[in-house]
Amino acid sequence: MPRMISFILTRLATGFAIGCATAFLVWQNGFFSPGAMAGNLDNYLAQGLFIYLFASTISMGYLATALLLEEE
Predict the structure, then answer these.
(1) Nearest alpha carbon to residue 23 among 60, 63, 55
(2) CA nearest to 53, candidates 8, 6, 19
(3) What does the pLDDT read at residue 1?
(4) CA-to-CA dists, residue 49 to 40, 45, 65, angstroms
(5) pTM of this structure
């Protein structure tokens, strides 16, 4: 795999993992109303979308920062 593609995929995956962990902690620590923690399907869908959107945003920021700071 070319070095640039490997660089991009590694940084995106790392940023996505950091974003997933952070979003999960934000959701589980009660920053939302207690009713949002209930176990019905709508709330699971909302939690999944929240985690995905938070993680994708963090991954793009992580990649942009890594590209900015890369020296070579």
Answers:
(1) 55
(2) 19
(3) 76
(4) 15, 6, 24
(5) 0.79
